[in-house]
Each structure stands twice: as C-alpha cells, then as structure tokens.
C-alpha cells in the first residue's frame, strides 16, 4: 500500500511540477546552441495529446532556427520525437493513453512546446500511431544502424518530419491523384533520393500512388534506393544525367520533387522534364521560376513546400507566409486516410545513434551544421535517469 501511494505521489509531482528540456541559449557558438533547463509541466488543449518522450531525432531545421531570428532564447528545441501517449484531449479521437506514437512539431519556435523535452505537446494532424506489438522496447546501441522497418522508438522518431513534408508536397503542391491506375504510366522525378525526405518520398510515391520513380544519388546508394521502390536510380554526378532522365521518362514525367533544393539542382530538374507538356515541380526552399533559366513557352508550375503550414500561418524573420484551408484539407485527407495503411511497410533511413540524454543535443546539431552526416538520421534516446 505504501509503495502504491509513493508511486502515485511521484507521478503527481511530475505531472504538476517541473520537467527538463533542451532550450535555445541565443548563442551561435559551437556546442552552445542549447542548454538544459527546468520548465513547467506542459498543459494540453482539448484538441491535443501529451507524449512522454522516449527517443528524439535531430534535423537541420533545428540548428537553422537556433542561429537565425526564427528561434529565440528560451524556445524549446527539437522537431521530431517518439514516445508513449500520456494524456488525450477531450476533443481528440483515435488515440488512447499508452499508444506508441511519433510526432512532428514546429520546434525551436515556442517556449512551451518542442520535441527535446521530457513531455511533449503534440497535434494529431502531425502524429503517427504504431502497432505496439511490433515495437522493440530495448534501445538501439550507440553507433550506426542500417535502414529498416519502423520497429523501434529511434526509427519512429526519425520519420515524422519527413513524412509530413512528403504528404504536403504530394497531396497539395503536386496534387497527385491517389488513383493508382491513373498513375500507372506516370513518372515522378525525385532529385536526391538519399536525403531524409527523398528516402521517404520514394516509398510514398510507390506505396501510396503507384508512380514510376526516377531518382538521383551517388552510386553507393543505388541498390538501397532500388530496394525501397525506386525504378531508376541515376548518378547525379554524370555529365549526361539530365539526358538519361529524359530518355527514361520521356513525356511522362508529370511530377518532380527537388529535395536538394539549390539553384543547380532545380535547373537540372527543370531541364530533365523538358519533354513533358504539363509538369509540376516542387522544392523544399523558396525557389521558383525566377531562380533558374526557363523557357517561357513551357507550361511548368513551380511550388514550394514549407512544412509548418500544415499547422498555422508562419512568421519566419521578416517573412509572413499564410496557410489556407485548401492546403490543410488536402494534407489531412492524405495524412489520416491515405498514409496510415502503409506505415507498416515504410522503412526508416540509416540511423546514427548518439548517447542518450539531452547532452547529445548540441553534438547532434553541430554534426548537422557542419554537414558531417549524409544518408543518415541522427537519433538519441531520452535519459534513463
């Protein structure tokens, strides 16, 4: 009896007191982007859920917020986390206490919510629920792990931002039909398939849409990308890579996603789709037809995916970018209906597992800032303390 009372008391103190989180310091110095602080225990709204964090993933957006005016001192860092549902808002359906989930949120942006926290406020619209029977409880060992099915908290933490990005790109910006028969003869060009987003985009394009997938990558990644669904993988370093793509796709490259998103890569994507009468080209930065050399006689639509718009209007520095209901509708339709049946078949990318605890946040962000990690997602477990 005393043991149960003691446990209840500890839970109550945790749920009503302070928790630890990695927050932005306001510094841009190496290994000083974040620090561990005590923050109030988060309170959810009726349309939110609360997650007890088990594993985290680091993303380039985390360090970019930290060194720009997108993120302010005291904001909770981190955008990707997996864990167990602790609380469910009264207006939320489809989730229960104890569910294994991963979620993406606009980290580094708020002082009361971010992924690198012991408990995390999550929105159902950016959360994935997993089959707990197929999940392993033991942590992955520190070091490198190959791509594979999402059966660990580390793997789950690594995919959510990427899947939300792909969902918004495919369902709204590219407006791809989910009619697999209609897509049977169509191609999508995914430039840089070994990136975190590209790796997932290949799988979604094949599993959900049934598209023919052309992608680019260094030769060492060709076999891996073919194993997850790419029909054609070309070396982006080849001088004639654009001509190779045109020969394969002909006039049927209806969609393109540039996950590398530089002027050079966008120019290559544009040139490779030259034979298609009507094509939509998406990228993950703010590039458009004015960023490259174009032919005014071609009918090409350029779009830009800013993943945070699935949540709300965005103010990034001096830029104000509004969202809209059509965007949210297209995204939610895909996220809640088209994607869930395929989660069991999606594989996470290679993982680089760091030491558990928030002590790994700064090293993770520095690895990304210095561009020392390619073809891997950096993940780490919550502290066991």
TrEMBL record:
Residues 26-380 form the Enoyl reductase (ER) domain. It holds the Pfam family ADH_zinc_N. One of its GO terms (molecular function) is oxidoreductase activity, acting on NAD(P)H. This is Piso0_005879 protein. It comes from Pichia sorbitophila (strain ATCC MYA-4447 / BCRC 22081 / CBS 7064 / NBRC 10061 / NRRL Y-12695) (Hybrid yeast). The gene is Piso0_005879.
């Amino acid at each position: 009896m005393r043991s149960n009372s003691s446990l209840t008391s500890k839970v109550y103190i945790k749920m009503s007191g302070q928790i630890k989180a990695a927050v932005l310091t306001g510094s841009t110095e190496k290994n000083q982007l974040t620090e561990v602080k005590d923050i109030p225990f988060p309170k959810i709204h009726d349309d939110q859920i609360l997650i007890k964090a088990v594993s985290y993933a680091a993303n380039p957006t985390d360090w970019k917020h930290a060194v720009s005016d997108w993120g302010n001192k005291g904001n909770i860092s981190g955008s990707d986390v997996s864990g167990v549902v602790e609380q469910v808002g009264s207006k939320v359906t489809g989730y229960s206490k104890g569910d294994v989930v991963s979620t993406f949120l606009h980290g580094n942006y708020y002082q009361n919510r971010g992924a690198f926290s012991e408990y995390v406020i999550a929105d159902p619209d950016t959360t994935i629920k997993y089959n707990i029977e197929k999940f392993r409880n033991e942590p992955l060992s520190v070091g490198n792990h190959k791509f594979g099915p999402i059966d660990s908290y580390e793997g789950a933490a690594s995919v959510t931002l990427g899947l939300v990005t792909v969902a918004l790109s495919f369902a709204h910006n590219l407006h791809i039909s989910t009619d697999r028969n209609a897509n049977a003869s169509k191609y999508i060009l995914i430039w840089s398939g070994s990136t975190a987003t590209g790796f997932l985009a290949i799988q979604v394009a094949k599993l959900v849409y049934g598209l023919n997938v052309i992608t680019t990558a260094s030769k060492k990644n060709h076999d891996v990308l073919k194993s997850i669904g790419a029909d054609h993988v070309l070396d982006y370093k080849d001088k004639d890579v654009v001509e190779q793509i045109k020969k394969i796709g002909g006039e049927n490259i209806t969609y393109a996603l540039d996950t590398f998103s530089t002027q050079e890569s966008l120019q290559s994507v544009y040139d490779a789709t030259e034979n298609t009468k009507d094509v939509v080209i998406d990228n993950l930065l703010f590039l458009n037809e004015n960023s490259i050399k174009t032919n005014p006689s071609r009918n090409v639509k350029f779009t830009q995916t800013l993943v945070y718009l699935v949540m709300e209007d965005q103010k990034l520095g001096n830029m104000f970018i509004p969202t809209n209901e059509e965007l949210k509708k297209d995204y939610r339709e895909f996220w809640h209906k088209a994607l869930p049946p395929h989660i069991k078949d999606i594989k996470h990318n290679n993982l680089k597992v760091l030491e558990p605890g928030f002590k790994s946040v700064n090293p993770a962000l520095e690895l990304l800032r210095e561009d020392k990690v390619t073809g891997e997602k950096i993940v780490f477990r919550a502290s066991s303390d």
